[in-house]
Amino acid sequence: MKSDKVGNVLVNLFIVIVFGFVYIPIIMIMIFSFNQGKGLTNWSGFSFKWYVELFTNSTLRSVIFTTIIIAVISTIISTIVGTLAAVSLANFTRKTRNTFLQLNNIPIMNPEIVTAISLFLLFGSFMIPRGYATLLLSHITFSIPYVVITVYPKVRQLDPNIVQAAYDLGATPTKALFKVVLPQIKGAMIAGASIAFTMSFDDFAISYFATMGTPIQNISTFLYLSKRPLEYRQSMNALSTLIVMFIGIKVVFDILKSKKKNKGEFAE
């Protein structure tokens, strides 16, 4: 019994240490985003100045706007293309399906720098001027494989008889897709879109090569190329805090919604 208690204490201590390494830096960033000074070690007083600068500084507004717009558009397009590709793969023969899945996994397993240089050379070969177009195309390109591997397993779980039943009842293939297939894989589509948005929002290497030599920048390339990165450090901490708070509120909302739904089902 004593050894079991010691083992439980050690396990709990290990878990606390792991969570400490993960969350303490995030908590420190959130706390010092309200620091009046620029330091991350000396507290100079409580202030919202960095949050105000986040929305009033024209340079930061432009960078954040570009990042969000590219992430949103690339997420929408990659989710649509990736979902349709996953649905199509389910109708292929096993050999053809496995071949396409292996090809789909190559960009995921490749180092990001390899994909970045490949796209850089591709755009150069076709004389496509670097800018918003190349940035958007690059983000769509590396996001689609993540959507495919997220949605495809859910498509494979669907009962093929449901689609056949829809055809027997007079539904066209398009109507069967929108009325039967997509509603059942909606959760996987949302998961794939979330991954695509996160990958786009956080990307650096591919964005850097896609916009090299142009004034167009997202957050990651802006911080890398900025001649005075420390000047914007606290504003980026404020942005990070807003993102963490938004995600936290969304997670809490989903948990409460799930509990409410489960209580309703239990009451019935």
Report on the architecture of this protein:
It is a single chain. The chain is an all-alpha fold and 268 residues long. Helix content is 79%, strand content 0%. It contains twelve helices and no strands. The chain has helices at residues 2-32, 49-56, 58-89, 94-109, 112-125, 132-156, 160-168, 173-184, 186-202, 205-210, 219-225, 233-267. The longest helix is centred in the C-terminal third of the chain and has 35 residues, at 233-267. The radius of gyration is 23 Å and the shape is globular. The mean pLDDT is 85.
Task: Produce a short descriptive summary.
The protein is mainly alpha-helical.
Total of helices: 12
Radius of gyration: 23 Å
Strand tally? 0
The percent range for strand residues is: under 5%
Mean pLDDT, all residues: 85
Helix-strand pattern: HHHHHHHHHHHH
Alpha-carbon distance between the two ends: 43 Å
Low-pLDDT runs: none
Shape: globular
